Automatic annotation (TrEMBL):
This is peroxidase. Belongs to the peroxidase family. Ascorbate peroxidase subfamily. It comes from Salix udensis. The active site is at H77. CDD domains: secretory_peroxidase (cd00693). Ca(2+) 1 binds at D78, V81, G83, D85, S87, E99.
């Protein structure tokens, strides 16, 4: 039977689509990941986990897109201390204060913890206690990037929840302070086997959300930018929208 030009075009496009899907899947499966993690970890035990999280986060961000930055920062502060184990979610105990009580974590959004707890309840209602909180935090961070207009990317899953939180000293030692310069940040991340490209990617995470005014106080920007700390303290200067920014800064 003769193949018309229209049919041939359809078959060609279909073939290219299948090849594209195969290559994408192959690239994903060959990307190096840590032992114990898998691209298909919950495919049988909780196949709807990621869709449940994304569906709920779409609703959250529709009301307040600023929560995306809070969830992304929560993931960073969890992973950089003693690995992505969800230990930042743990409350303190008789053994000592939790990671949440360490100075760098005092500014983590309280709402971010509430969102993670809500996501955990939704996922566990669907599948039982199968999905770890550490994985929920990782998925929420990825969706925060994507739903804020950033790139989509796959997340290997299978993280185990930590049973112990890090000390405040360990938390301080592992989270680079906002006062670090580029050289110090590169050294700190190199200690975790991350290179300059990773630093750029992590820095890009600061392009969503807002910062606390104290992070800019005393910086060169504070004398010429209305995001600066001097403006938040009501400094001199005739800057555009000054009253608006002073009002916003007073809340953070």
């Amino acid at each position: 039977m003769a193949i018309t030009a229209k049919s041939f075009t359809f078959l060609l496009i279909s073939s290219l689509f299948l090849v594209s899907c195969f290559c994408t899947k192959k690239t994903q499966n060959t990307f190096p990941i840590e032992n114990g993690l898998s691209w298909t970890f919950y495919d049988y035990r909780c196949p709807k986990a990621e869709s449940i999280i994304r569906k709920q986060l779409k609703k959250v961000f529709k009301n307040d897109i600023g929560q995306a930055a809070g969830l992304l920062r929560l993931h960073f502060h969890d992973c950089f201390v003693q690995g992505c184990d969800g230990s930042v979610l743990l409350d303190g105990s008789a053994s000592g204060p939790s990671e949440q009580d360490a100075i760098p974590n005092l500014t983590l959004r309280a709402k971010a913890f509430e969102i993670i707890d809500d996501l955990r309840e939704r996922v566990h209602k669907e599948c039982g206690r199968v999905v770890s909180c550490a994985d929920i935090v990782a998925i929420a961070a990825r969706d925060s990037v994507y739903l804020s207009g950033g790139p989509e990317y796959d997340v290997p899953l299978g993280r185990r929840d930590g049973l112990n939180f890090a000390t405040q000293e360990a938390t301080l030692a592992n989270l680079p302070p906002p006062t670090d310069n580029a050289s110090a940040i590169l050294r700190a991340l190199a200690a975790k086997n991350l290179d300059a490209t990773d630093v750029v990617a992590l820095s890009g995470g600061h392009t969503i959300g807002i910062s606390h005014c104290a992070s800019f106080t005393g910086s060169p920007l504070s004398t010429r930018s209305y995001h600066g700390g001097n403006l938040c303290r009501g400094s001199q200067g005739n800057l555009p929208h000054r009253e608006l920014y002073e009002h916003r800064c007073a809340r953070y």
